[in-house]
From TrEMBL:
This is Assimilatory nitrate reductase catalytic subunit. Signal peptide: none annotated. One of its GO terms (cellular component) is membrane. SMART domains: Molybdop_Fe4S4. GO terms for biological process: respiratory electron transport chain. InterPro entries: Asp_de-COase-like_dom_sf, MoPterin_dinucl-bd_dom, Mopterin_OxRdtase, Mopterin_OxRdtase_4Fe-4S_dom, Prok_molybdopt-oxidoreductase. Keywords: 4Fe-4S, Iron, Iron-sulfur, Metal-binding. Residues 1-60 form the 4Fe-4S Mo/W bis-MGD-type domain. The keyword Metal-binding applies. GO terms for molecular function: 4 iron, 4 sulfur cluster binding; metal ion binding; molybdopterin cofactor binding; NADH dehydrogenase activity.
Amino acid sequence: MTKTHCPYCSLQCGMTLAPLSPSRRTGNQVEVQAWPEFPVNEGALCRKGWTATGLRGSRERLTTPLVRDRATGELRSAGWDEALDLVAGRLAALRAERGPDSVAVFGGGGLTNEKAYQLGKLARVALGTSQIDYNGRWCMSSAASAGNQAFGIDRGLPFPLADVEQTDVLVLVGSNLAETMPPAARHLDRLRERGGHVVVIDPRLTSTGERADTFLQPVPGTDLALALGLLHLLVAMGAVDEEYVGARTTGFDDVRRSVAAWWPERVERVTGVPVTDLHATARLLAGADKVMVLTARGAEQHSQGTDTVLAWINVALALGMPGKAFSGYGCLTGQGNGQGGREHGQKADQLPGYRMIDDPAAREHVARVWGVAPETLPGKGRSAYELLESLGVEDGPRALLVFGSNIVVSAPNATHVTDRLESLDLLVVADMVMSETAAMADVVLPVTQWAEETGTMTNLEGRVILRERAVAPPEGVRSDLEVMAGLASRLGSPVPFSTEPEEIFAELGRASAGGKADYAGIDYDRIRREHGVFWPCPTPEHAGTPRMFGDTFATPDGRARCLPVEHRGAAEVPCDDYPVHLTTGRVLAQYQSGAQTRRIKELPDEGAFVELHPMLADRVGAHDGDLVVVTTRRGELKAPARVVTTIRPDTVFVPFHWVGANRLTNDALDPSSRMPEFKVCAAAVRT
Ligand code: SF4
């Protein structure tokens, strides 16, 4: 029996992997069982978790390196030495000819902390390139940017998730947690059983919205205006906690002025939320002792995502909530290691420990841990989408190494990104299955999956947990860490790369020591004993930090920043040619690009669909089940219609787990986080 965690979302539910009797083995050697003592999910799992071992038995599992034959253009089997020699040789030649930034690295928010750390080191030490970023840039980066600006630190939830149960009013902005992380919905249910009130804000009435006491259905891309309008009312009602604002924040007078013109009628015109609902919600917030605001991708994946989160943080600060028990602001991170994946060096602008790469002291510290000179470390690279856009053009990278990401499905404006991938001299993908991105690669490297390897993840609460190896990988498969070490040595890295997760975690701890995300006091045995450890945890004696901001924020003066923001609206708004809003999101049975979950036979693989309101369906002459075509300025998608009354009549929804949705989405970027505007663009629908 091995206690471990689910391979998918940021809840990182605890589970037990138990050996199957030989008579029941059909490719799997283990089955999932509950781990009731793990506090985050208390034994509950969603259907993705229960079926997670399914991929082990999949015939689609890659077990040998593949190299594209130049003569036939087809992928053929190769030995590990041949594949790694080929990759290292071509990378070295490119570097010699065009410089280190001709090689780029793209990581993933599902990689363990050890892999994310080692990937950043591979890029900066072995390859010497500044060109590294990862798909977490497209996940919660706007909340990260806002958290850093307002609180001086970015930890998704600065409190344990179970605190939700003890608040009085929970405001969920753009989160469908009942479908994306179902075991978390128990906290909503318990909150309501206690008499608490749940407010859900979403253009679609999802199963999370069905649990709400108040449901607000704004126009996509107007969550910021809604926050400004609510704060306007709170100021007008005298509901601002002036003592808290005076003692624990700076800048609130500027914020107060900035919301003066957001009277309810104007907010209704922009957001579509009725004035009466605005007043009722403001009264609810004003009258509550404890208020918790949680944002997710619906609020964050916008070209004004950072400002949207800042606006909601301002609401929480005005009410005096951050740092108060069972109150405050938090972000519900999405990907499995969405939190840890952004802390240890695979971001374009960061070194391990959430240190900024342009900070001389940070460079000095990390270089010392790595055993290299600080001046040899490259500077800041391009953000994820900008990096992909630059592939193969002028001074852009000519080679890309991809670990833990399926860009072809998950990138915005995906047709354009696929063109850029095609223009490369060398595309290398490490994956466990032939994802859409791997299918384009010149070299595919088959790697282990979660049950076959050990490593830490940091869940949405900032709790560092340990996934333990339960079974041996199939013959022919190597871990990402072995792949990185194999490349580093062939590239003549000045320092050795370990392949042992525990050893790498100890090094990560030293590299993070003194940084914002300080893991120095955490080790594997301690994680096992304590059901995870919350960072920051600077020493073995430190208890870890489940709750933050009680006395001080992580800013130089210890006060939170109230930052005035203005509603700009979406980069694209409906027009004659594209008269409706398109929004995208997830469904219960699939995870991210679907590369894993679409291959698990127990999970329904229904394919993309187009959700639209009966009024819109009537207008375009579509019936439930008819094939409809959604068009945007970037592409089109044909898929069956689902006619539902739960979506706004001016909006269509497409899930993003299949090829197609992101051919439609907009690549307009948030100026601060560089988050693309996945969540809204202008579209047309026809039969
Ligand atoms: Fe838990 Fe998320 Fe896994 Fe479902 S997908 S079992 S909610 S970690």
